[in-house]
């Protein structure tokens, strides 16, 4: 045998840090559109690193390792936000690297907190696997709720939407699937030396088989054929990239491209035409005002009985006591316009309820606005959230729940709106403006994440964006064959609305099953407390 190699201080310090970064990168590349599923073992490496945190500074060491893994993960998952700053490169391009670094570093704080929580409470033996799953899944839940939340690329959404493992979201939702995914993926981090670890690894393998088996069974009985009288939905994708400023010519071009696609002939007349979140880059009340040339052209492009659903923004005077520095409030909205024999009628209006922090509104606006933060992030006056969401009911189609862009990330959003309204919608419509993010992984990720809402609710989804990716998704989260327009495509999707499924377990139970999983994780810490009481060393 050769001489024993001693690790110097540099290796002892930097090897774990490099491993943490590699773990985060691996987990990120497991997510769609990359789909490198062996990367899920990054969670096993993270558990292993937290178990071996510096005994002299266990909390600090565990936090830093968890934070490094999270920073690497979110650098890959959210790098595309930098593209938005290059729309107006002359004024905002310099902010791109700072925005990406701030986003990744800020979201990584949740992973650092999970690592501290795990390192503090994990008992001896294989039960610590459940503590790890509960700590990280719980902190991911917090990430989805703090400051309206940003639940982008939850570990449970690593499985491609529509695949067999993704189907269990109809039972436990994306947060519950996150707990299960972490418990399975992190199991190899326990090692193989102890019998408990070997049993845990075997149970994780069985759980993975069960996850896949449930999905195969569910998809084998999939309801795929729309009803004979199902309405035809047309999704319009005009391929209009985001511009820093819109003059009259640019505005007219956007309108023309939307209207040209709206008028395209079809084998069967579409009941609903769907434009994107940024259907037209102007205030709704301006271009829909009576007597305007824009209203006249939209009216001429539609046939009696058709409904146009489009996104846009609207402005209205602030209510008494409502905070509005310029006396006006701005809503990111969706409107349904139905063509009758006499003209256009507004038959549905929805104001976006969940807004993007620092993108659509400034948290703590009253306190931060005087400091010039709005000018720094080029936010303008920002948007005001609409009332708690409810479905809308345009004529000729089933009741529909709108999700504007970012709202499609939130599990349970549609069901909560249905409970509030006392009616379950027949489908979901997701309008978005992913043109901000260019030809990056962001729009592909957004499609995958939004499709999980279809699985959870058992409802089909229609998704419209100006530059892609637009798609029609069935109630199992699968994009219908031939019903997707990729990035940079110009065209329409015509599809009969897929059928909804019966009420899912997730709709009935909501977050209760995920709460039960977190309680199981908390119960798994009991040996830790026993050690504390008896004075046993961990």
Report on the structure:
The chain has 538 residues and is of the alpha/beta class. Helices cover 44% and strands 14% of the residues. The protein has 19 helices and eleven strands. It has helices spanning 9-30, 42-51, 58-78, 81-84, 89-92, 96-121, 128-143, 169-185, 195-220, 248-263, 284-287, 293-301, 365-368, 373-377, 413-421, 442-457, 505-509, 512-523, 526-534; strands at 232-237, 272-274, 307-317, 328-340, 343-351, 400-404, 427-431, 461-464, 470-473, 479-485, 491-496. Strands 5-4-3-2-1-11 form a six-stranded mixed beta sheet, with helices on one face. Strands 6-7-8-9-10 form a five-stranded mixed beta sheet, with helices on one face. Strand 1 (232-237), helix 10 and strand 2 form a beta-alpha-beta unit. Helix 1 (9-30) runs antiparallel to helix 2 (42-51), helix 7 (128-143) crosses helix 8 (169-185) and helix 10 runs parallel beside helix 12. The two termini are 34 Å apart. The model is unreliable at 370-379 (pLDDT under 50).
The major pleated sheet works out as: 6 strands, mixed
Number of strands: 11
Question: First CA to last CA: what distance?
Answer: 34 Å
Radius of gyration: 25 Å
